[in-house]
Design a protein that fits this description.
The protein is an alpha+beta fold and 408 residues long. Helix content is 40%, strand content 14%. The protein binds dinuclear copper ion.
Length: 408
């Protein structure tokens, strides 16, 4: 009995010690402790302004909190119930009531004024600093209604949220937006340069947030949000999509790599070359695997009573492999297709849209989804890079599977 009880109390002590150690290590961990009370700062002037504003409000709130709680505790102790004491009965005190009403109003007016003064430096971009990218060329502007720095020049980058990554499109020298350099997941920017961002989404709501570079901004389909930053230190600034956007939300990282101006210029050149090379390779692959278009003598509508001689693939199409590609490429996440058991409604219902269509049409719909848009759907939603991400065999299997699955 006695030893049993001692055992229990010792175990309890050990448990509380372990819990205590865990709490201490969590609080002391630099990551958990960094800016525990106030927003992160140090990356960009607007982030610093947000931090300063937060600290001013926190200081005012702390003074009020200490005053109110102090008066409360003082009264609790001083006027606590004692034998033989009769509480005074007080009915209203006009001066006191006017005092705390006016006092509270004055505090709110002060906070509102300070906020509006600070808001300017949070919202409005400032000029690039000496040593920043010379953004004198007008082609740097992709955005029309973006608030601009006083001297009017900034590097405007398009930030596009998609399940589950960010795509960054950089300005170039011409007005054709189709040939601009872009990157995924990591944005590269020059130091001391004001960078304005056009934030959008092409599917669901995401949220752009690099804490050290300023506030959160929603990425909403069909709407463009604007913000800016100006990084003054080289390095990598990390963030995360801050809006639950689906299964992969936790993996939707974002980072901004700040480099010197010459490094940025060299990177843009190299990135453009990489994109050109990849596009060329993809085009060559597409040519190698071109599906022959149906000839005029064989109407694809199939209304002729005499069956057209089969000129398609001699071997029976491997529809099982195509079904597997349909699943692994994630087609079912957006499209309804009975043969694959998918019921998603983001893209066209393939049982209808591809009904009776030939291999050439289906192939084009996959590798160049913007070529023909089904009624009621918008351009630019389906990823345009399946021609690159799928191998030739995968693409052929997928097309064969879809032809078979949607045959009339
Ligand atoms: Cu995108 Cu969460």
């Amino acid at each position: 009995m006695g030893s049993d009880r001692r055992h229990t109390s010792r175990r309890r002590l050990l448990t509380s010690l372990l819990l205590g150690a865990l709490a201490v290590s969590l609080v002391v961990a630099p990551g958990a402790f960094a800016d525990a009370l106030t927003p992160e700062s140090g990356g960009s002037p607007n982030a610093d302004s947000i931090d300063t504003l937060y600290k001013i409000v926190l200081a005012v709130a702390a003074v009020i909190f200490v005053g109110v709680e102090g008066a409360l505790i003082y009264s609790l102790v001083k006027f606590r119930a004692r034998k033989g004491r009769v509480a005074a009965q007080i009915h209203g005190n006009t001066n006191l009531e006017i005092g705390w009403t006016v006092g509270a109003a004055v505090i709110l007016v002060i906070l509102a004024t300070v906020t509006f003064i600070k808001l300017d430096s949070i919202k409005n971009p400032i000029d690039s600093r000496p040593g920043g990218l010379n953004t004198a060329s007008g082609a740097q502007f992709a955005s029309v209604d973006q608030p601009t720095p006083p001297k009017g020049k900034a590097l405007n980058i398009d930030v596009n949220g998609q399940q589950y990554l960010w795509r960054f499109t950089y300005p170039d020298k011409d007005t054709n937006a189709q040939n601009n350099p872009y990157s995924y997941e990591e944005m590269v920017v020059p130091i001391n340069t004001t960078v304005t961002l056009d934030i959008r989404s092409q599917d669901v709501a995401h949220s752009w947030w690099i804490p050290k570079l300023g506030g959160k901004f929603d990425a909403i389909p069909g709407y463009t949000n604007k913000t800016w930053f100006q990084a003054r230190k080289l390095g990598i600034y990390r963030g995360q999509c801050a809006e639950l956007c689906g299964r992969g939300h936790a993996n939707m990282f974002a980072s901004v790599r700040v480099v010197t101006v010459p490094q940025y210029q060299a990177w843009i050149v190299a990135q453009t070359e990489r994109i050109t090379a990849a596009n060329k390779a993809a085009a060559a692959d597409r040519d190698k695997y071109a599906v022959p278009a149906p000839t005029a003598s064989q109407p694809s509508t199939g209304t002729s009573t005499t069956p057209a001689p089969s000129t398609t693939t001699p071997a029976a199409p491997n529809t099982d492999a195509g079904k597997a590609v349909f699943a692994s490429a994630g087609c079912g996440a957006c499209h309804t297709l009975k043969a694959a058991g998918s019921t998603a409604k983001i893209g066209p219902d393939l049982d209808q849209a591809l009904s009776g269509k030939d291999a050439a049409f289906i192939n084009t719909s996959i590798v160049n989804p913007n070529a023909e848009i089904a009624p009621g759907f918008t351009k630019g939603v389906m990823p345009p890079n399946f021609g690159q991400t799928l191998s030739k065999t995968q693409l052929k299997d997928l097309v064969d599977f879809l032809v078979a699955a949607t045959k009339k």
